[in-house]
Amino acid sequence: MTERVNFTNLQIEIVQSPRQAVFTFKGDVDENFRQNEVPRIKKEELVFELGQINNFNSCSIREWVYLMKDMSKLGRIVFRNCSVTMIDQINMVPESLGNGVIHSFFAPYYCSCRGEVTKLIETAKHRSELSNKQAPEFSCEDCGKKLEFDALEESYFLFAEGSSAIAS
Predict the structure, then answer these.
(1) Could you say which of 29, 47, 143, 148 is the most buried, measured as most Cβ atoms within 10 Å of its Cβ?
(2) Is the pLDDT of residue 168 over 70?
(3) Which fold has domain 2-102?
(4) How far apart are CA 131 and CA 1, in angstroms?
């Protein structure tokens, strides 16, 4: 079963199976986002696919936190493929996670041959680096050189502090 919720700059696709509901967010979480219009679905696992969130604005933060509070009562929340914007949001407002855990997220890197590159990081695979606020190492797919992490590790991996927010 697939359901869609559309806001001016944000689309949410919801796909349900017997034990989980997957919410895929695409676009901007802005002043047009109304959390009370997002269906509350009780499942063992509620998966939030967040790789295509481009922007969060200050008007939407409260709405997002209310959504996570409600969803936290309905099932285990898993965040997958969090965009750099989503990680920034989680770091600024930890309540953005509700009781969720981050399974995977994108992080900014840089290579002299390609410029800015984002890499997907799986938290279970890189748990020790993340717990120590260290960027996992990746090589450039084009030139083979080691990519440089393109943010402050201490700030970007703040969400991993204490490790309760990252999946095992």
Answers:
(1) 29
(2) no
(3) Transcription Regulator spoIIAA (3.30.750)
(4) 38
Alpha carbons 32 and 136: distance in angstroms, whole number: 36
Burial class (CB in 10 A: 0-12, 13-18, 19+), 115: exposed
Listed by start position, the domains of the chain span: 2-102, 109-117+125-168
d(CA 36, CA 53): 19
Residue 97's H or E segment, with its range, is none
Q: What is the pLDDT of residue 167?
A: 72
Q: Which residues contact 73 (CB under 8 A, 6 or more apart)?
A: none
Query: Which amino acid does the sequence have at 69?
Result: K
Residue listed under structure tokens 């309760």: 164
Q: Six-digit token pair at 59?
A: 């008007």
The four Cα atoms 46, 52, 140, 88 give a dihedral, to 10 degrees, of: -80
- For residue 82, give the DSSP letter: B
Three-state secondary-structure class, residue 66: helix
